[in-house]
Amino acid sequence: MGINSVERFLGDEALRKGWQVPVDAAPTGKRVLVVGAGAVRPVRAYHLARLGHWVTIKVRAPRPAA
User: What is the DSSP letter of 58?
Assistant: First the structure.
């Protein structure tokens, strides 16, 4: 089984069940812009948000490519 299949399953499950990720840090007041939704950008955005930063992701396409 490929890791992509496992990640897709978990992502679909999270959306269907409304899983939430707790933020561990207090808000820093810093804002971060992540440009694109390539392989590692959503992961970076996730970790920055967990550090307390306000993260915005901007992509050119209406939705990330599958």
Answer: E
- Per the structure block, which two tokens stand in for 6? 């496992």
Q: If residue 3 lies in a helix (H) or strand (E), which one and from where to where?
A: helix 3-17
Q: What's the rounded Cα separation, in Å, for the pair 65 and 17?
A: 23
Express each pLDDT in 29-43 by its tens digit: 999 999 887 778 888
Q: Is 57 helix (H, G, I), strand (E, B) or coil?
A: strand
Q: Give the rounded percent of residues in the chain with a pLDDT score beyond 90.
A: 30
What would the DSSP string read from start to end of 10-56?
A: HHHHHHHHT------S---S-EEEEE---SSHHHHHHHHHHTT-EEE
Query: Structure pTM?
Result: 0.58
Beta-carbon contacts of 28 under 8 Å, excluding residues fewer than 6 positions away, are: 51, 52, 53
